[in-house]
Amino acid sequence: MPKELTGSLDEGMRCVRISVIIPALNEEKVIGRCLESLVRNDFPRNGFEVILVDNGSHDRTIEIVRSFESDLSIRIVRLTGVHISALRNRGAAIATGKFLAFLDADCMPPSDWLTNADHLLDAPGSGIVGAHYAIPEDATWVGHVWCEDRSAEKVGDVSYVPSGDLLLRREVYSQLGGFDESIQTNEDFELCRRAASAGFTVRSYPQLRVVHLGTPRTLQGFYKKQRWHGTHVLTVFLRDPEKRRNRRPVILSLYTVSCLVLLLGGSIWGMWAGRWLLAVLSPIAYIVPFLLIACFRTIPRGRWRGTLPLLLLYLTFGLARAESVLRVRTWWGPYRKATIPIADSPRPSSGSPS
Q1: What DSSP line would sit under 239-272, residue for residue?
Q2: What is the pLDDT of residue 246?
Q3: Residue whose C-alpha is closest to residue 256's, from 227, 235, 225
Q4: Domain 3-215+337-350 in CATH: superfamily?
Q5: Angle at 252 between CA 249 and CA 253, to 5 degrees
Q6: In this structure, are residues 20 and 50 in contact, taking their beta carbons and an 8 Å threshold?
Q7: Tell me, what's the pLDDT at 37?
Q8: Tens digit of pLDDT for each residue in 126-154?
């Protein structure tokens, strides 16, 4: 055990400045790399703790996490049958740090991540800080094209930062009431919007960017991830349509649904009446707006070669989000009651606070 972690539990709690909270569910393929990156951080070892909140993993996730107990101050808590937002809230509830750093299990922060975060969060008036993800070195064209497009303007004041790399003061988190546990996705956007409404800043800093190992590698993987991410986008939008800045993806989703309906209707009409004009115009109407967006995003930057790949990703994005919108049962974000959490970490005498 590092010398910095020896001593009483109370002493350790006084030293902790940052609590790193990691939700997990069957993360054996990535959790080791995530924790290794925290071991390599240049922040004082007794200055941060790691809290892993597990949602019932049945692989080697917990075993791998425990293998880092001699290198990191780690606590493991189990909370099953809940949304990821509830896992994050549970970790925050038992955190001892002045600052809360929410990190996903498939993300690798740079070695100066905690040092930079401590500096930024210690500044007067800091609100929510973080960054949009970087892609792995071995990323495919899917990751490169999408990340290049999505990250181009996401520096400084932004509408949100992803919850896999989101940091804030404990008092700001408490004032906001934490993440909304009734929604499965879009919880980061929803929290950031509440923060902005309460007068807090939401800022993205390149020095806080983490490598996202979960970056999709195939078009099919991209579709599945966007479909999942869109689960509760409409839910958040419907709560306050006039003030929500995520109306653009909602509009694109609804537009895609309309085009698909027209395509189906046109095909039926064409078979019945022998007129196929509507069936032909529908896919054109679907493609043209996305083509214009792709051109607008690439040509002014001198990256015209990326227009067609980006168009393909936007078309896939639209279809994935359309499927999400059509899931009526998710519109109101039904609340799923959490099971009683069971602490699963060693007692203080073994070197890990609990």
Answers
A1: H-TTT-TTHHHHHHHHHHHHHHHHHHHHHHHHHH
A2: 59
A3: 227
A4: Spore Coat Polysaccharide Biosynthesis Protein SpsA; Chain A (3.90.550.10)
A5: 85
A6: yes
A7: 97
A8: 999 999 999 999 999 998 888 877 665 57
Model pTM above 0.85: no
Domain ranges (residues) in the chain: 3-215+337-350, 247-330
Other C-beta atoms lying within 10 Å of the C-beta of residue 284: 10
pLDDT digit string (tens) for 78-131?
A: 999 998 999 999 999 999 999 999 999 999 999 999 999 999 999 988 999 999
Report d(CA 109, CA 103) in Å as an integer.
9
CA distances from 8 to 12, 118, 186, 254, 353 (A): 6, 24, 39, 57, 9
For residue 116, give every residue at least 6 positions away whose Cβ sits within 8 Å of its Cβ, in sequence order, or none.
Answer: 205, 207, 208
Contacts 24+ apart (CB under 8 A), 90-94: 90/53, 90/338, 90/341, 91/19, 91/21, 91/22, 91/23, 91/51, 91/52, 91/53, 92/19, 92/21, 92/170, 92/173, 92/178, 94/51
How large is the average pLDDT for residues 332-347?
40
E strand segments, the chain:
18-24, 48-54, 74-78, 99-103, 107-108, 128-130, 156-157, 165-169, 202-204, 211-212, 342-343
Residue 42 main-chain phi, psi, to 5 deg:
-85, 5
Tell me the average pLDDT of the chain.
81
- Token pair 């929500």 is at which residue? 244
Q: Residue 205 is encoded by which pair of tokens? A: 């800093």
- Residue 152: its pLDDT value, please? 55
Rg of the Cα atoms in the chain:
22
**Per-residue pLDDT reduced to its tens digit, 260-272:** 776 666 666 666 6
Backbone angles phi, psi at 311, to 5 degrees: -60, -45
Phi-psi region at 177: left, alpha or beta (left = phi > 0; alpha = psi -120 to 50): left
